[in-house]
Amino acid sequence: MIEEEKLENKKAKEYEAVVNIYTSFNNTFVHITDMSGRTLAKITGGMVTKQDRLKANPTIAMFIAKRVEDTLKEYGIKSLFVRIRAKTGNPAPGPGAHSIIKSFSRAGFKILNILDTTRSPRGGPKKKGGRRGRRV
To answer: Model confidence over 67-112: pLDDT tens digits?
Structure first.
């Protein structure tokens, strides 16, 4: 009896992970790492569907999230840090990012932080059009 009480008092250790979501208007990538940066899983829209036009779809993003949830439960992960990244220069992430986060919260994962890591261009390469610009 005493041993059973000790086991009940001792909770299973809850692990944390980082979920990197990259969404463009053509595809959705989800890359899961542990806190040290070691890859646990990588799932893309192409692994879920074979139709190119559906890879960035929010419905397909829900299926991606379902696969990720299974992987996270195998590792015993309960808490997530989410990093969303869009294509460089885009003002907003693609259509799948929001539905992935929604799926995680519905599945019972604790979302600790949501961070936007979209890169912004700083000048970049020379624009086309030559010295005198585009003549209309």
So the answer is: 999 999 999 999 999 999 999 888 889 899 999 999 999 999 999 9
Quick one: tokens of 44? 């893309």
As given in the structure block, the two tokens for residue 125 are 């390469």
What tokens appear for 130 in the block? 């030559």
pTM score of the predicted model: 0.81
When pLDDT is cut at 50, 70 and 90, the band that residue 8 belongs to is low
Q: Which two tokens stand for residue 109?
A: 């994962």
The residue written with tokens 């559906």 in the block is: 54
**Cβ contacts of residue 16 below 8 Å, gap of 6+?**
34, 35, 77, 78, 79, 80, 81, 112
In sequence order, what are the residues at sequence separation of 6 or more whose Cβ sits closer than 8 angstroms to the Cβ of residue 85?
Answer: 20, 21, 22, 23, 93, 116, 117, 118, 119
